[in-house]
Amino acid sequence: MIGNKRILAVCPARGGSKGIPRKNLKPFRGVPLVATVGRIVAKIPEIDRAVVSTDDDEIARVAEGSGLAAPFRRPETLSGDRIGDLEVLTNALEEMEAIDGFRYDIVLMLQPTSPLRRVEHVRDTLAMLERGDFDAVWTVTETDSKEHPLKQLRVDRDSGRMDYYDAEGGRIIARQQLTPVYHRNGVAYAISRSCLLDQKNIKGANTGALVIPGHMVSIDTLWDLELAEYIAEREGPGASKRG
Question: Which mean pLDDT values do the consecutive 10-residue runs of the chain (243 residues) have?
Fold first, then answer.
């Protein structure tokens, strides 16, 4: 609990994946990605319940072995690659409230594809949600200026003609002219129950951002996985075991 509010942690991990087949079972420094979430959760006493939302029995077994519970299976209707986080988290919340017989006030989404997360990232996200009275808090990372929206281009595939994605990009001479922008890094999403069920959104009307510096990798490809392992190795021998 935090501030007398019960916290349900949900690890969304479906069996299908187009980028990397069986992605959520791929090892990161010898640990299946889904199991990295269980290792983190074990170090965060504020979390009252931690479950995996999956349609896959093997993923469920691996998740349970890491300390996550798997008391339900995600229905097939919520297992496609075009299903949003809102539907998955709402289903998990409703299932767990029915199973446990009480209400959860905060849903904490911990995606298995962010293995560089640390305990302090998650705890700081929860604390910010409670302290700031936000509807939700997402972790974000500042986007490299080379990938700033005003430096992006569009290319017509038929003619090969190129133009700025945003016309304002033509006025940018130096990176110092760019206002910093941020992208979600997938490390943690803390969302209030009312945000999910009443606003029907994971980003409510009043959402805060916890900025995490450095390189945070969200795993979509094998290159992402290799990059994350490289970053972890550079951080030192205990990097994968740190919160």
Answer: 94 87 95 97 97 96 97 88 89 97 97 96 96 94 92 95 93 86 96 97 96 93 95 68 44
Flag whether 1 is in a domain.
no
Give a yes or no: residue 2 inside a domain: no
Domain count, the chain: 2
**Contact call for residues 60 and 15 (beta carbons, < 8 A):** no
Phi and psi of 167, rounded to 5°? -55, -25
pTM of full prediction above 0.85: yes
**Parent domain of 162:** 144-179
Do residues 190 and 112 make contact, with C-beta atoms less than 8 angstroms apart? no
Burial of 21 (0-12, 13-18, 19+ CB in 10 A): exposed
Distance CA 81, CA 232 (A): 28
